[in-house]
Amino acid sequence: MKSHPSLKKLLRSRKFPSLQEDEEHLEDLQKKFLRIQQGVWHQKKRVVIIFEGFDAAGKGGAIRRMVEALDPRGFRVYPIGPPLQEEQGRHYLYRFWKRLPEPGSIAIFDRSWYGRLLVEKVHGLVSKKRYEQAFTEIVQFETMLQNDGIELIKIFLAIDKKEQWKRFEERISDPYKQWKLTKADVTDRKLWSAYVAATDRAFKETHTRQSPWHLVAANHKNYTRIKVLEIVNDHLAHQAKWIESAAQKAQVRAIKNQFRK
User: Fold this and answer.
1) Domains in the chain, ordered, with CATH?
2) Residue 57 and residue 217: Cα distance in Å, rounded?
3) What is the pLDDT of residue 253?
4) d(CA 238, CA 6)
5) SS3 of the chain: helix, strand, coil, percent, to 5
């Protein structure tokens, strides 16, 4: 297995690729993902895509563009915040078990079970013992999902501190975006270095051959949205092959025969 991604190394290198507006390429990628969705549905497969990243890194925007062409009946997006009252006092993975996809569908998590290793770690909400145990629990959880047939894709969107402040200023100035900025964003920005360290530890312990991390340099939104779709499409390309398969053609013939009767 190649070495795990390094957030600290990326931020230090300041290598954030840019991309000119390329709506045509983006639309092609969206259409490919639609074909993948159809393959997932017809074969009754299950897919989980998780997004992590800094505040204002563009997770929501990347998800919106990713699903723009999909049939809304075949996917669910779950924005993950603090546990609800009914979820508190239960194992931290409980609320994610409840949201695993049904056969033929895709579940997308805007933040995920990695909150145990990131926000809970940085804010001291988890004991050192439970924090260390969580690495093993999460790897076992992901292995169990994949052994059960779920395809798992893990994406982390990284922006530098200067770009984050630029996006925070845009939110402050735009009344339609002010709701996105919270006191937690202000607090977390002051803990930037702690988040970088916690993220790199998470990469080190949970980047496996079966379940690798995809670290995306996300300072430029166009590049980010295209790169995310490329990652997802590459990972799930085999699902789209069903559209041209013998099984699909046989199903078409069977449906036509039913109408002829």
Assistant:
1) 7-260 (3.40.50.300)
2) 9
3) 64
4) 29
5) 55, 15, 30
**Bridge-partner residues for 152, per DSSP?**
48
- 170 vs 149: CA distance, rounded Å: 42
Residue 234, amino acid: D
Token pair 């507006």: residue = 21
Task: Give whole-number Cα distances, 37 to 40, 81, 255, in Å.
Answer: 5, 27, 20
Spell out the residues 6+ positions from residue 198 whose beta carbon is closer than 8 angstroms to its own. Answer: 117, 118, 121, 122
Residue with tokens 């845009």: 170
Place of tokens 């926000």: 119
Question: Would you put residue 14 in left (φ > 0), alpha (ψ -120 to 50) or beta?
Answer: left
Spatial distance between the Cα atoms of 62 and 210, rounded to a whole number of angstroms:
24
Give the pLDDT confidence of 228-261 residue by residue, as tens digits.
999 999 999 999 988 776 566 666 566 666 777 6
Give the length of the chain. Answer: 261
Q: Which residues of the chain have pLDDT under 50?
A: none
- Please state, in angstroms and rounded to a whole number, the distance separating the CA atoms of residues 223 and 229: 10
Question: How many C-beta neighbours within 10 Å does residue 82 have?
Answer: 11
Q: Give the span between the Cα atoms of 91 and 138, in whole angstroms.
A: 12
CA gap 91, 240 in Å, rounded: 36
